[in-house]
Amino acid sequence: MKNHRPKAASAASVFGKPDRVLEAIRQIAVLVQQRDLAKAEADAQSLLRDHPKRPDVHNILGVIYQQQNKRGLALKHLEFAARAESQNPIYLNNVGRIYLEAHAIELALPFLHNALLINPKQTETLLAIGEYYRNV
Fold first, then answer.
1. Contact call for residues 25 and 47 (beta carbons, < 8 A)
2. Which of 6, 77, 88, 105 could make a disulfide contact with 62, Cβ separation 3.0–4.6 Å?
3. DSSP string spanning 62-105?
4. If you ran DSSP here, which 8-state letter would residue 10 be given?
């Protein structure tokens, strides 16, 4: 899934210092892209222990679990991120895609619909919906 990018707005703290958590998430995202999911999972779990309330940490861990076909764990973390930042279309899209993978369109559509209301140009959401209907 391509939607694991953290929001750019959180790239720096109020004081202009780099957000070390965001940098760690970017490094984990590289591991995911390289398909080094075991290391990505270990790094994300470690980050979550230190930052259990950060939605971006939950999101990247959920993406990793989704890549590993651990849907239950993925859904837990992706839903946490989407609840914490309900206006983040990437997080909403990620939850919707998990439901689509489980063929639960009735559960997926509210998340995907909201993601598109927030960002109508979110191509990943449009592609996910199209792909689902192409395969049913």
1. yes
2. 77
3. HHHHHHTT-HHHHHHHHHHHHHHTTT-HHHHHHHHHHHHHTT-H
4. G
Gap between the Cα atoms of 57 and 20, Å rounded: 12
Q: Print pLDDT tens along the chain (136 aa).
A: 455 544 444 444 444 556 899 999 999 999 999 999 999 999 999 999 999 999 999 999 999 999 999 999 999 999 999 999 999 999 999 999 999 999 999 999 999 999 999 999 989 999 988 888 887 7
C-alpha dist (Å) from residue 102 to 4, 14, 66? 19, 40, 11
Q: Residue 46: which of 61, 34, 30 has the closest Cα?
A: 61
What is the torsion angle, in degrees rounded to the nearest 10, for the CA atoms of residue 93, residue 47, residue 52 and residue 69? 40
Dig out the tokens for 20 from the structure: 């070390």
CA atoms of 52 and 102, how far apart (whole Å):
27
The end-to-end CA distance of the chain, in Å, is 20
Does an H or E element contain 12, and which? none
